[in-house]
Amino acid sequence: MSMFEDFKTLLVIKKYSKNTIGTYMGLLQSFQSYLGDALPICKLDNKHLLQKIREFIIDKSYAYTSQKQFLSALVLYMKEIHRVSLDLSSLQPRKPQRVLPEILSKKEVATIIKSTTNKKHKAMLATLYSLGLRSGEVINLKISDIDKNRNTIYIKKAKGNKDRILPYPEALKKILRNYYVEYKPRLYVFEGQKGEQYTTTSLRAVFNKGCERARINKRVTCHSLRHSFATHLLESGTNLKVIQELLGHNSIKTTMLYTQVSNRSIRNIQSPLEFLDID
After folding, report:
1. pTM score, two decimals?
2. Cα–Cα distance measured from residue 30 to residue 74, given in angstroms and rounded to the nearest whole number
3. Could you confirm whether 134 is annotated as catalytic?
4. pLDDT 10s digits, 88-103
5. Which of 121, 122, 226, 232 is flagged as catalytic?
6. Would you call 82 a catalytic residue per the annotation?
7. What mean pLDDT comes out for the span 152-178?
8. pLDDT exceeding 90 applies to what percent of the chain?
């Protein structure tokens, strides 16, 4: 049994979302692997533990969010399971400058999906983009969440423990149908080779391979398909409030980010240079 099994059970009892539980467990297991099985986290004194945490963060080069999640998981684990209070405030990362996301064009998205010949991989990428899902939402999607009669897809316990219902696009139905015939998944829409739940690591690898084949040079991730979904909807005239509901954002302010990357309001603007007689 994993040394973090009691912690996982506690998170379930406390009603943490499945995504958060998976993230916390993964980060703690990664840190324990870094320390080695012979040196359990709980056996380190505070000074030694802080030193190892610093070394681990530097070694992993975690982004802002991952570093915050790791520290939160560690503090909660030590407090709830070992009754030890950790003060890791000195290791909390500085909030990064907000950078606008890279957006893939419709043509680039189409090339990524078309160049992916494996039917399962193609279906995963198409599902990510056509529904604007987070990676974890695709991984957790079950066959029973798809209602063919109502043409809807039920996203359960997503970020913030929220549910939402999305329309089931006709174009996606065809892709999923071709995938189902060959792979015959049983519980989850996308499963591993032995029927287990697919992993976000494998999904990232599928996306990265697709970008390689499509010769995409932008700095993009799986989440860029979600960003592109929202931006393309906005550029096609979809109301911002509707996009907020489709994405599952709590605040319209979060969704308004896409007004900054959309070219809808600027594509018809003429440069002042157009009005100069410089021939």
Report:
1. 0.68
2. 12
3. yes
4. 988 888 876 667 889 9
5. 226
6. no
7. 90
8. 65
- The domain limits of the chain are 5-91, 106-261
The three-state DSSP-derived secondary structure of the chain is CCCCHHHHHHHHHCCCCHHHHHHHHHHHHHHHHHHCCCCCHHHCCHHHHHHHHHHHHHHHCCCHHHHHHHHHHHHHHHHHHHCCCCCCHHHCCCCCCCCCCCCCCHHHHHHHHHCCCCHHHHHHHHHHHHHCCCHHHHHHCEHHHEECCCCEEEECCCHHHCCEEEECCHHHHHHHHHHHHHHCCCCECCECCCCCECCHHHHHHHHHHHHHHHCCCCCCCCHHHHHHHHHHHHHCCCCHHHHHHHHCCCCHHHHCHHHHHCCCCCCCCCCHHHHCCCC
Q: What is the pLDDT of residue 229?
A: 95
Question: pLDDT tens digits for 5-19?
Answer: 999 999 999 988 888
Q: What is the pLDDT of residue 101?
A: 86
Q: What is the CATH number of domain 106-261?
A: 1.10.443.10
Q: Is 226 annotated in the active site? A: yes
Is residue 132's pLDDT more than 70?
A: yes
Identify the active-site residue in 120, 121, 232, 249.
249
Is 106-261 in the same CATH topology as 5-91? no
Select which of 134, 179, 198, 232 is catalytic.
134
In whole angstroms, what separates CA 264 from the centre of its chain?
Answer: 26
Please identify which of the residues 159, 173, 209, 213 carries the catalytic annotation: 159
- The listed CATH number (3.30.70.100, 3.60.20.10, 3.90.1150.10, 1.10.150.130) that belongs to domain 5-91: 1.10.150.130
Tokens 């007689």 correspond to 277
Which member of 16, 188, 198, 258 is catalytic?
258
157 is catalytic: no
Whether 267 is a known active-site residue: answer no
